[in-house]
Amino acid sequence: MGRSVYLRSPVRVALPLAHRLLMQDSREIDYFGQRILQIVQPLAATEDRQEMLPLLARSVANNFAADGCWIVQYLSPGVFRVAASACVSHRANSITNQLTNYPLPTAATPMLWRMPLLPDYQVMVVELCAQGQVIGGLVVATKGVEWYEEAKLVLQVVADFIGIGLLERDLQVQADISQIYPKLHYRLTQAVVENQQIDKLFEIAVADMVEGLKLNRGLVLTLKASDTSKQPAAHSETLVAAHLADDSLEISEWDRPLAEPATAPAPALVSPGATKTTTQIQIVTTIDNRKGNLLSQPLPSSFLLEESHFCKTALANAPNPTIFDGNDLGTPTDRLIFQADRLPSMVMIPLMGATSGHRQPKQPVWGWLVLQTNRSRHWHPVELNLLQCQIYQIALARIHRKALKQARNAVANRTSQVQTSLQLQAKLHDVGRKRMEKLRQANELKDEFISTIGHELRTPLTSMSLAIKMLRQVDVDPARREQYLDILDEQCQREIKLVNDLLKFQQFETRQVEYRPQRISLNQFISEQATLVADRWDDSKSLELALYLPQVSPQIDTDADSFNHIVEELLINAGKFALPNTMVEVLLTVEPERIIFQIANLSKPISDEDLPNLFDRFRRGAGITQQAIAGTGLGLSLVKSMVEHIQGTISVTSSIVQPAVAKTSFTIAIPTVLDRH
């Protein structure tokens, strides 16, 4: 007999069931017993407690000719969830997710309820009890069907069976979770202790969850914000494919900017060529245990948040898990990524940072754990708690890794700073040591200069004083008088030259020397100056002078006084330091852009330590003072200043020609075209 006849036939349901039972009509008793057994048959037909409640809901809907049936489980006073549902019409199917927004009436026996979502339906509500406690409710929505007492009595008996089944299902779920959780917790903890990477932790956790909860597929998605060029506002399959082909994200970037759990704002108008910030979703881990699962196209590595209805809904619902029952297949991107047509039941657990207390609503979401199955499934709160505990443990590991990385970076940065500071201190110490050494050397040079200048000043004065005393004698013959006068003149000129050198040195130090160029003929100028200086050389050395001058005398515009002092000072030094019975050579060479003037002699070698410092102020070579060779240490320093004054350069070399003998050459290069600036 059909279900519609059972509910609608006036012959069958005209008399109350109690009256028929009192009449001991065995046929009626058998009939109602068969109907109850037919409705509660799923309790014995399946061993899977996950499938039992949906089968019972479907059986109730079919046998009572209902458009929808919902099995509701109370979680706490005023809070309940839909544990199973069977919706025949599309309208009834659309209210499944909204049913929890309306408080159910208390009904120990079946009662009609005018449900705001279904005003034109007769909605029957009855409590589900087990072990003397109300644990839920049974809601059956019919249209155009009258509820008789017999039907209510059958519904009451069925509700008692469903209450027992709901309790058994809860106990079975808790028992299953008590067996699954230690394994999941142990494997995940072991992976954390072994310092596995975050993507490896997710792979282990998702694989264990899929296996332990007997699911078909698990995904881990992460969020990443990026700037991209503005795309046309179209949602064609071509654009979806183009966006899905973007695999530019790095899998290891777990700490990128995150999204706040709020509804995504509408896209703002952007001028052509401008950029905007978009949120990409990266597929990090995929565990799929379906056999022979061949996709029409491979999964992309990333896709855009704006193109996924499921992800936007889950983001707005965070921090709570979001459950999809397969009624909505989503966007083309969702159909490609989540395959809701093949895996209708799905839960998305938000990945959020761990906190010490209650979860903070404004805490940023950085991804989701997605679990799917190919059959209708109502996710039990105990299961959701298990999933959230596993995610929480991974979040703690992530925070620990991040803090450890930051600490290591801080230690490395601090170590680098300390090393840099130590290196800087070492350099400063070295610089200070060198400066102290230079100061010490400068003090020695100053002391030596003062001693030398004092000697150079006193020696002429002593000679002049002695000559004056001799000239005052009455009996001095004329020849001796001339000799004393020559001494006076020579020492006076020496004193004047010393004073002039000191004054010129001061002028060059303070850059108060005026450049006064005039044209001179170098052959004649050098010949005359060399002859005059050579006459003053020590006759006891028997030195010779050799001039190597070009046939055509070069003409040059230069400061004659400075050039004269340069030639004179270098020739005096050449005669002073030349070895006895040797030759002093003067070489003049003309090149296209410069004139080379060179003075060379044979002397004692100049050490490699003294050679670079030969033009320093007050610097005299090693052993010069001990050899009683006259000089102040200002001569070559003044020569270098004058060479630079006439825009030239000077250099010195000392080449060993034989043991204890070296050829010392001073080379001056003067440009033929002077820089007027």
From TrEMBL:
What is the catalytic activity of this protein?
A: ATP + protein L-histidine = ADP + protein N-phospho-L-histidine
Q: Which PROSITE patterns does the record cross-reference, listed alphabetically?
A: HIS_KIN (PS50109)
Recorded hits in InterPro entries, A to Z, give: GAF-like_dom_sf (IPR029016), HATPase_C_sf (IPR036890), HATPase_dom (IPR003594), His_kinase_dom (IPR005467), HisK_dim/P_dom (IPR003661), HisK_dim/P_sf (IPR036097), Sig_transdc_His_kin-like_C (IPR004358)
Gene Ontology MF annotations: phosphorelay sensor kinase activity
Q: Which SMART domains match?
A: HATPase_c, HisKA
> Where does the Histidine kinase domain start and stop, copy by copy?
452-674
| Protein name as catalogued | histidine kinase
Source species, domain of life = Bacteria
Q: Does the keyword Phosphoprotein apply?
A: yes
* Class in the EC hierarchy, top level: transferase
Key words of the record: Kinase, Phosphoprotein, Transferase, Two-component regulatory system
EC annotation?
2.7.13.3
Gene3D superfamilies found in the cross-reference section: 1.10.287.130, 3.30.450.40, Histidine kinase-like ATPase, C-terminal domain (3.30.565.10)
